[in-house]
């Protein structure tokens, strides 16, 4: 089939007039295609979620508190973010322990702790902006993030909001996120 398009879900070639993939049954947007490396794109620049793509998007949009973030993008980015934080933390504590072994004093421990907290503050921004954009996808105000400050139940309520499906179609915060 030379004059076709590719399914946004499974990547198999389908005819241009097809609204649903005959292989996987996924609905096909009118203006979408799959690139040769199987990244789903459309004219708005959408790239399919995955650990690497979503984590790149998370850091690229660190200070972007407007717009929407799909549920899949959010959770893939959260996984990628957790992996990066774990790696940086392990390396940091390893270097601190190595430093303590070499110098055998605690003079640099304070500096290490200051750097640790600075990194925690810096890496907090991408998580907060992603959370706000995820709330926007579910048609909630970004100020709902502050519900997480309620002791014991706030984090659980926010987790439920993060797991809910986003609004289909455009909403107050922007166009559909496609997933």
Cα radius of gyration in angstroms: 21 Å
Total number of helices: 4
Q: Could you say which overall geometry the principal axes of the C-alpha atoms support?
A: elongated
Tell me the series of helices and strands, N- to C-terminal. Answer: EEEEHHHH
Beta-strand percent range: 5-15%
Low-confidence stretches: 35-39
The portion of residues assigned to helices is 40-55%
Task: Indicate the structural class.
Answer: mainly alpha
User: Distance N terminus to C terminus?
Assistant: 27 Å
What is the count of structural domains? 2
The largest sheet is: 2 strands, antiparallel
Q: How are the strands ordered across the major sheet?
A: 1-2
Q: Can you count the beta strands? A: 4
* Mean pLDDT across residues: 80
Pfam families: DUF805 (PF05656), Zn_Ribbon_1 (PF13240)
Keywords: Membrane, Transmembrane, Transmembrane helix
Organism: Pediococcus argentinicus
Transmembrane segments: 74-96, 108-131, 143-162
Task: Describe this structure in a few short sentences.
The protein is mainly alpha-helical. The protein has helices at 51-60, 71-103, 107-137, 154-163, and strands at residues 4-6, 13-15, 32-34, 40-42. Strand 1 and strand 2 form a beta hairpin.
């Amino acid at each position: 089939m030379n004059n076709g398009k590719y399914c946004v879900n499974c990547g198999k070639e389908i005819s241009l007039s097809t609204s649903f993939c005959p292989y996987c049954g996924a609905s096909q947007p009118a203006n979408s295609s799959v690139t040769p490396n199987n990244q789903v794109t459309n004219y708005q620049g959408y790239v399919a979620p995955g650990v690497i793509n979503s984590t790149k998007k998370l850091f690229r949009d660190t200070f972007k508190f407007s717009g929407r973030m799909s549920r899949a993008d959010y959770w893939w980015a959260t996984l990628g973010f957790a992996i990066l934080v774990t790696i940086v933390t392990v390396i940091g504590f390893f270097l601190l322990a190595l430093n303590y072994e070499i110098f055998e004093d605690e003079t640099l421990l304070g500096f290490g702790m200051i750097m640790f907290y600075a990194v925690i503050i810096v890496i907090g921004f991408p998580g907060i902006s992603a959370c706000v954009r995820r709330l926007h996808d579910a048609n909630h105000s970004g100020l709902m993030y502050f519900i997480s400050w309620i002791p014991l139940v706030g984090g659980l309520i926010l987790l439920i909001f993060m797991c809910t499906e986003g609004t289909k179609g455009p909403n107050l915060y922007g166009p559909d996120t496609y997933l």
